[in-house]
Every structure is written in C-alpha cells, then in structure tokens.
Design brief:
Blueprint lengths: L2 H5 L3 H17 L4 H21 L8 E2 L2 E5 L2 H6 L3 H9 L4 E5 L2 H7 L11 H16 E2 L2 E4 L6 H8 L5 E5 L18 E4 L2 H8 L9 E4 L23 E5 L3 H4 L2 H16 L4 E5 L19 E4 L6 H5 L4 E4 L4 H6 L5 E4 L15 E2 L5 H10 L1 H15 L6 H15 L5 E2 L12
Parallel strand pairs: 1-4, 2-3, 2-5, 5-6, 6-7, 7-8, 9-10, 9-12, 10-11, 12-13, 13-14
Antiparallel strand pairs: 8-15
Length: 422
C-alpha cells in the first residue's frame, strides 16, 4: 500500500476498487501487460490532472439536475432533447456537461481532492472534486458504464447530492462494464436488468435499482395496441444491421435465405428497416426491380411504427427486438448469436438453417395471438413501463429532487466492502 493510500480516509474503498478494476481486465482476457499499461495510463492522467487543477471558484452554478453527457458524440446526437424538455416542464433546472478528455483538459475541469489520492485515481477524483466545487445540484445524472467518478462524488460530497445512473440499454452479459454500479440510484428499464445485476459474481458498489425509462422511447399510448393487418398480403419486417455487420458473410447468407423464401411466396411482402448508419445493402439494389421489397431508410419511421404494418419480424441479434415487441409483434431470430435477451424463454423461434425458416414463419402465423402475447411478455420482462417510459423516468428524478429519496431494490453485494464513506 502506498503512503498516499494510507492517508486516505477511504483507503479500503480505493483498494477494493483497484482490485475490482484489475479483475475486470482479467475477465476480458487481458493479461498483466495490459493491466500494467492501463495503470500507467491512469498514473499519467493523474499527473496531468495535478497540473491542470484550479482552485474553487467563488460562484457556483446552481441547478436541480446536473446532466453528464457520456461523450461529445452522445451530446451532438441530441437524443436527450425530449428528456431535458420533460425535466424542465416539471420545473427542474438543468445544467449540462460533456465528458470528453480533450474538453476536460482544455477547460481545466479539475480541483484538488479533499484528501490524498493515489495517482492512478487522481484524474477521476480531481474531476469529481471539480463538479462538487463548481455546481450546486441535487441530482447528478450519469450514463457512461464503468465510469468510476461516482465513487468519488459519493465520498467527497457535503450536501448529500444524489448520483443517478441511467441505463441506455437492457443490461446483459454482452458487456463487462455493468459490474460497476457505485451509484445512489440505478434507473434500469425492467426486471431482466435487475435480475442480471443480482446474479453478477464480481461487481463493485452499492445502489438502489428503480425501473424507469428509457428516455428515448416516446410516451405514445396511441398506436401501441396491435390491430389486425388490414391488407390481404402477408407482410414481414426485416431489421437490417449496422455498418459493421453488413459486411459479414453470415448476414448476407441470411439475406439469401429470405430472398429465396420470397421467391417461393409471391404474395408476401417484405419491409426492410435500414439501420440509421447502415447502407441498406443488399436490399437497396433490389428495391427498383422487386415489387415484393420495400426499403425504409433509418429515419423514415420508427421501429414500432414499421412493426405495426407487419405480421412478424425477421432479425439477427439486435437491441431493436425490444422496439418491435413493444407493439406485440413477434420475431424470429436468425442465426446462432448468444441469446442475451432470453428470447427463447418467451418461445420466440430461432432459425439456424435455411430449411427451418419457412416452417418457423408458418408456426408463428398459425398461432399469431399466442406469439403476440409472448412478445408482450418478452417486452415487459425487459421494460417495465410500456406506455409512458419517459414519464416514469422524469417522475423518478422529480421525486429524488423534491424529497431526496425514492423507492428502489438493493443490489446484492458481490464484492464485499470492508469500509466506506457516507
């Protein structure tokens, strides 16, 4: 243990955080060399933060909510505009800050921590001290998974500010960053995420979990009930992947399956929903010559709106299955990707071979109401608030801002602490 760590009033927490971060690297298959490089980078950033730190300013920016954008890209996408407007409509005042290393350096957004901190943690600790020194907030909202600044916010705070972390997807084993949850409140979408956190074998932190959000789903009750397809033709929806998957052989193989199925089912129609960043190939090349295929660009309509026009959805593994099941439209999963969303638990078919595609489609259409109900159950497992997800999140934050607390379920400890700072 270093002399700096011995003098820290929460050295046990820092020691355990250090052990957790090293263990997380091992679970990702990283060796000692990778851990050493990571540690060296953190030490360098810690030294840099020491020279960039500045004294506490006289004036504080006072707000109810300090919203931390996880990156410059996230901020520029503007996906939180409706969320921010909804918070303001509740009377909450908002300040925003973008977490970007270049912006932090140029703005010198660092303050001296209130106690000695090991260099490898000093970047995060100094930035936490800056936020507390320069903003007077009741709630700080974070989104970046694995971002350890909340540990220092909780340790340094004097006014009992609350740290609320927003999930921006369903929590699954697909990412190893979910093991850090040292917040006051963790707003997850639904029961599956809490179940995942509760079953983690290696994690760090403590928090209360509440079901709220997501903020990027509109609170649109109208159109969220499945109505019978009026047209006589069978209509399928295919969810095209992002640009990185468009080049894979497996994707083009699945497209060939669907093309051949269409050739055998001339009365059927296929709507292809292109990923916002995707090219839409190979379907774009067919749109002029094949009357069975309709291609919707990324921003033409929402996934839920597109799904409402269809009998069922064909897709590879994607978060978009959450969107389509919101309106009770069943899906068939193509390929052997890991079943992170537990789709087979809700009897959603999976097709591994081309000869199984037609029977799977026929099975869903034969018992459409059963599969539609399964789709609703699937959605409810992952997202608690179907008709008003944005409102549920705004109401949660309003309660914390107003009363300083909210209901939530504790996450079981999987990495025992021997000390801490309240």
């Amino acid at each position: 243990m270093s002399r700096n760590e011995e003098q820290s009033p929460f050295s046990d927490v820092l020691r355990e955080l250090d052990t957790f971060l090293a263990g997380r690297l091992r679970t990702r298959g990283k060796g000692r060399a990778s851990a050493s490089r990571k540690s060296a980078a953190l030490v360098w950033k810690g030294i840099l933060s020491f020279f960039l730190q500045r004294k506490k300013t006289a004036g504080l920016k006072v707000c109810d909510v300090l919203l931390v954008h996880p990156s410059r890209k996230s901020y520029l996408q503007g996906r939180k505009e409706s969320f921010i407007e909804a918070l303001r409509s509740k009377g909450m005042t908002i300040e925003e800050i973008v977490e970007d290393d270049d912006l932090l350096v140029r703005g010198r957004l660092f303050s001296p921590p209130p106690c000695r901190i090991p260099l490898r943690f000093r970047w995060h600790a100094s930035h936490a001290a800056y936020l507390l020194d320069n903003y007077q907030f009741k709630v700080i909202i974070t989104e970046r998974n694995g971002w350890i600044v909340p540990t220092f916010l909780k340790a340094f705070r004097q006014r009992q500010e609350k740290v609320v972390h927003l999930a921006h997807s369903v929590l699954t084993a697909e990412s190893s960053n979910y093991g850090y949850y040292d917040y006051d409140y963790y707003a997850v979408f639904g029961p599956s995420s809490y179940e995942y956190l509760s079953n983690l074998e290696f994690s760090f932190g403590n928090c209360l979990v509440s079901y709220a959000g997501p903020y990027f789903f509109n609170d649109a009750v109208q159109g969220l009930s499945v109505s019978p397809i009026e047209q006589n033709e069978l209509t399928l929806l295919f969810l095209a992947p992002g640009p990185s998957y468009e080049q894979e052989y497996g994707y083009h193989e699945k497209c060939a399956w669907i093309k051949r199925w269409l050739e055998s089912n001339k009365a059927a129609r296929l709507i292809v929903k292109v990923h916002p960043r995707g090219s839409g190939q190979p379907w774009e090349a067919l749109r002029d010559d094949n009357t069975q295929v309709c291609v919707l660009s990324g921003n033409d309509v929402s996934l839920s709106q597109a799904a409402l026009q269809c009998d069922l959805v064909l897709t590879g593994y994607t978060n978009a299955v959450i969107d389509v099941t919101r309106v009770g439209v069943p899906f068939i999963l193509l390929g052997d990707s890991p079943d992170y969303f537990s789709s087979e638990r809700f009897f959603m078919p999976r097709v591994l071979l081309e000869e199984h595609l037609a029977p799977a489609i026929e099975a869903v259409l034969k018992d459409k109401s059963v599969y539609s109900n399964n789709a609703f159950q699937f959605y409810s497992y992952h997202v608690e608030n179907r008709t008003a997800p944005l409102k549920s999140l705004v109401d949660l934050l309003d309660e914390i801002v107003t009363t300083g607390s909210a209901d939530g379920a504790p996450v079981p400890q999987r990495f025992k602490r021997v000390g801490g700072v309240e």
